[in-house]
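quick one
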Amino acid sequence: MVGLYDESMLPEMLPIYYTRLFPQNIFCRWLSCGSSPQPLSNRELSFTLADDVYLRYLSICNQKELQLLLQKKCPHKLDIGAVYNTKPSIGRHDAVVLSRELVFDIDLTDYDEVRTCCQEAKVCEKCWKFMVIACEIIDKTLKEDFGFQSILWVFSGRRGIHCWVSDYEARTLDSPGRAAVADYLCLITGGDNQNKKVNLGSDNLHTSIRRALTVIDKYFDQLLKDQEFLSTTDRLDKMLKMIPDETLRSQVQKSLESMPETSLERWKMFQSVYENYSRESSNNNRKIRYLVEEIKIQYCYPRLDVNVTKGFNHLLKSPFSIHPKTGKVSVVFKPGNAKNMKLDEIPSIYSLLDDSSPDNAQHEANMRVAVKNFQEVVFSLEKAEAIRRRNDANISLEF
Ligand SMILES: [Zn+2]
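structure w/ zinc ion:
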């Protein structure tokens, strides 16, 4: 049914969507909590209208104002910005950014050099697995290495995912702090001309890298089958170039070229050639101690848009905004459930508002789940904020 819909129907449908389905109440509560101690009105909202007209520095005081603004402007896309020391407006050049969720933007186009099923704007169930891995690794890292708790995962609307961390410590992190978190999650480096983009050194691996590899290992065989990383001469060549040791490289090349083209078989053979070689040249293998791990990471580890994370006032698409090109809702999902998400079951405005659509019931049900997921994160954030405010009040009483 998707073919029957197009962008020209949005002006008619969006007002109904914003009134009936957009979770206005919980959205305002989430933004208020994430803006505290500043009022909700100090938060920048930005709208993209029809024909790419762009409105920045909008703000609201409460849900009623949000509803009025959405009806009046009917944005095709809704973005969220930073919290200022004053109500944001175009004229206020002295406004200072005080806080902002720590955000992550992962987009499948950044995987174009490794994914083989799709390129650019395309996405399918096969390459969605890269997003599943990214989500699991980043979520675990944020919780276990940084101690963050209020983490919201959102489908970007087309081919990626966004993550919003609302913990007070994350919101008030300065630019160098944000850059440090982004760098911590950045293992793949170097541009198009660099063949081997991961270097883990030769010392024992950091816990965070070991944990990432455990996640990757759950999906790696399936990815080899889906993506066929090693099946053609070109792809095999790319992998061989990641082997820094010339003798090993030519041994691997000889063994793999004469094999059937399935990547899973070739990968197993590569591992066994590597293990034999490492055993025989035990005093000389520091450079390739983690070669297998490095290649897995280069294929599968999250590829972040680091500028989005580093920037203090980077605008990011709001949860439950509609993607103007696909009509899909930016649904909130649970990180543990990313692997079960089916792209065609993600609600779209067209099937949500069309009772006769065959996807209507399924999309409505998934929309309810997404709102419930959003509520859960917001309720726990409100609790954490209440505790923080009480602790702050106690500390000030002591003095
Ligand atoms: Zn694909």
